[in-house]
Amino acid sequence: MQQPTLTLTCAGAPQLVQGKLADMYTTAAAARSLVHATARAADAHAASARRLRRDCAAAILFAAEAATRVALDGIQVLGGNGYINECARAAPLSCRFSAFV
């Protein structure tokens, strides 16, 4: 009697990758939109200086966290190949974390 083999493939894997890519796109688009809206408000002098500084800081924080999240998700989608030096996807993230090492 043969032992049944355990397969690690998932039937819904392409849909999971599509979902992750959609989340990555949405996150990047939201960050871009916030940065553009804040820049437009700064150009139009639509807010006080104090509020403008706060909005700019929030946009910078959100965009930086979104970029990190998208880069990590990109590495995860590539299945580990995203973090080797030959792959272009690892460059933004490895440069970001090299200052902390």
Number of domains: 1
Biggest sheet, open or closed, and with what strands and sense?
A: none
Q: Number of DSSP helices?
A: 3
In angstroms, what separates the terminal alpha carbons? 53 Å
Q: How many extended strands?
A: 0
Whole-number mean pLDDT: 80
Radius of gyration: 20 Å
Q: Helix content range of the residues, please?
A: 55-70%
Strand content: under 5%
* Secondary-structure element series: HHH
**Which secondary-structure class do the elements indicate?**
mainly alpha
Low confidence ranges? none
> What shape does the CA trace take?
elongated
Describe this protein's structure.
This protein has one domain (19-100). The chain is built from three helices and no strands. It has helices spanning 13-44, 49-77, 90-97. It is elongated, with a radius of gyration of 20 Å.
Summarize, please.
The chain has three helices and no strands.
Please tag this protein with its features.
101 residues, mainly alpha
Provide the fold topology:
Layout: H1 13-44, H2 49-77, H3 90-97
Helix pairs in contact: 1-2, 2-3
